[in-house]
Amino acid sequence: MSIKRLLFFFIAALLLALCTPCFLSAGMQSAVQELEKLIDDENRNKYRSHWLSLADRFQQALDEDPEGKQKAQALYYLGRTYQELGKKSFLPSDFEKAEEFYTRAVREHPGTDFAGRSQYRRAELQLRHHRDSAQAYLEYLRVVYNHSSSSKKDAAQEALRELDRKNLEKINGKSASLDLDTVSEPQKTRQPFLEERPITDSNITDAPRQDRADTDSRTARLVDIRHWSSDEYTRIVLDLDAQVDYYHKLLKPDEDLGTPHRLFIDLEKTRQGEKIAGEENIADGILNRIRSAQHTEDKSRVVLDIDELDDFRVFALENPFRIVVDVYSPEERQVLHTVEGEPEVSLDPERARLSSGSLLEQLGLKVQTIMIDPGHGGKDPGAVAGNFKEKDIVLRMSRVLGRKLEQEGFDVLYTRTEDVFVPLEERTAMANSKKADLFISVHANAHRNPNVRGFEVYYLNFAQDEDAKRVAARENAVSTQKISDLQYILTDLMLSSKISESRDLAKKVHEVTLDSTRGMFTDLDTNGVRQAPFYVLMGAQMPAILLEMGYMTNKKDMRLLQNDDFMRYMARGLTMGITSYRDKIEQFARLD
Predict the structure, then answer these.
(1) Fewest CB atoms within 10 A around its CB: which of 75, 359, 372, 519?
(2) Looking at residue 338, what is its pLDDT?
(3) HEC string of 243-283?
(4) Residue 244 Cα distances to 193, 198, 235, 483, 493, angstroms
(5) Contacting residues for 112 by C-beta, under 8 A, at least 6 apart
(6) pLDDT digit string, tens, across residues 169-228
(7) Which of 457, 443, 441 minimizes the C-alpha distance to 529?
(8) Nearest CA-CA partner of 223 in 298, 299, 276
(9) At 339, phi and psi to the nearest 5?
(10) Is the pTM of this model over 0.90?
(11) CB 546 within 8 Å of CB 475
C-alpha cells in the first residue's frame, strides 16, 4: 500500500474520530427539538408510538456515548420524554421510568446543569404525580442546596415559597416556613450512604486542632465519639454538627508490624471538636483503641484499632447527623436453618454430646434476658395528645411489662427507667453489648386522621406501604423521603440482623397479645404485623420488634392507653406471647 493511501486512511480516521461527537450532538439536538414539538403540539402528541420512538433516539445517543459529555443530557431527556408520556398515558410505569432516568442523571453527573434540572423534575413528579408535597419540598430543597448553579435554582426557590405559603409541608413535625435566603448557599453534593472510597494515605497525622472561629462557616465539627463494646460486638458513633461526606477503608492486620485490623473513617470538610481526645484506649472487648486527628486542613480522620473482626457495617443516621460503625467478631455458633418455615438443627458429631441448655446457647436460641426499650424520653416527648405525652405512657407500660416478665422468670433490662433522652442508636447498642436475647421497643402511635386506630407490631425490613413509611419516619424523626432513601441501604444492614427471627417473634406476640387482651377489652383494634426500617432496630443482634400500642390521636385508643387495667392485660398478653415464642424455638434444640 502506498504512503499516500496510508496517509489518506489515517486522515480519514482522524476526521471521523473528531467529528463523531459533532454528529452525536447534532442528533441529540434534533431529538430535543422533536421533543419540544411533541410537548407543544396537541395534535401530534396523542400517539404513544411517537413518544417511544423519541425515547429510542435518546437511548441510542446514550448507548453510543455512554461515558461522554452528552450522557447527562440524554438521561435528562429520557426522563423528560417518559414524564410527558406519563401525563398522557396515566401509566405508573411511565412515571417510574422518568424518575429512574432523572435519578441516574443526578447521581452519575452531579456537577452538571442537567443534574439540577433532573432534580427539579423529580420534585415535580412528587408534587404533581405522587401528590406528596412533603417529599416534593425536600426535592426542591436539594436543587437549592446541592445544585446551586443550576438554571432551575430560582424556580425551585419559588416552588418552596409557594409551598410555604400554602402551609402544606411539615418536616420533623414542625411547620416548614423557611427563610429561603438562608438556604441558598451551595453545599457539596452528599455521597450516598455506605459508599466506600479508597484512601490514598493511610498514615494518620497529628496536625493540631483549630478553634471553630478559624474555620469556614460551612465546615462541620466532630463533636463526640461514643462507643459500646463487648467481646462479640462493638458500636461506635461519630456525632457531628452537620451532614458531611464520609469515606471508610479497612486495613488488614500486618504481622510484621504487629498492627491489628484498622478501620479508617475520613470526614470531609470537618474539624475536630474541643472535647475529642486524640487517642483513647478501650480494650474492654474487640475494640482496642480509638484515634482521631485532623488529617488535612479540612478533613478529620478517625481510626479504630480492632483486635478481632469478622464483619462490619458503616451507615449514617439523621437528625442529628451521626455516623454509626458496627463491628462484629468471628462467631462460633451453629447456624440455625429453616425448613418450610420451621427451625432445623444440624449438629456435627462433636456437638452431639452438648446438653440442651448449652446447645440453646450455641445456637443463639436462648431466651432469658430481655431488653425493654421505652420509646422517646427527655427532650423527645414523642406523640402528644392534650396533656399526655407518648414518652410517659410507654415508660409506664414498660414497667408493667417488665414486672410481668420477671414474674415468669425472665431477666429484664431497660434502656431507660426515667424521663431521660437516649439516642436511638444507643438503645440497640445497649442491647447488643449486654447480650440481650430479645429487644422490645414500646411506642404509641399518632396520625393526622383521628379515625385511624389499632395495635401494631413491627419488625425491621423494607416498608411495604406508605403508612409503614410514615410510622418509621415519625419514630426515626426524619421525613418519609428519608425512609425511601434509607431502603436503598437497608439490604446491607439486614445482613447482620435477625430478620426472620424478628418476624416470627412479631407474629407470635401479636397473635397471643390480641387474643388475650380482647378477652377483656373487646374494642381493641389491630392493624396486624408490619415491617419498616426503624433506626432503633438496626444492627440488633437478637430478635427485635417495635410495638405501637395504639393511636393517641384516636379517642377510643387513647381511653385504652389511660386505663391501668388495659396496661396490665396487654402486658400479660405480651408476656404470654414472648413465652410462647421462647417455648417454640427451644423445643427444636432439645436432645433426646
Answers:
(1) 519
(2) 40
(3) CCCEEEEEECCECCCCECEEEEEEEECEEECCCCCCEEECC
(4) 11, 17, 20, 19, 20
(5) 72, 105
(6) 443 344 333 332 222 232 332 333 222 222 222 233 333 333 333 334 568 899 999 998
(7) 457
(8) 276
(9) -125, 115
(10) no
(11) yes
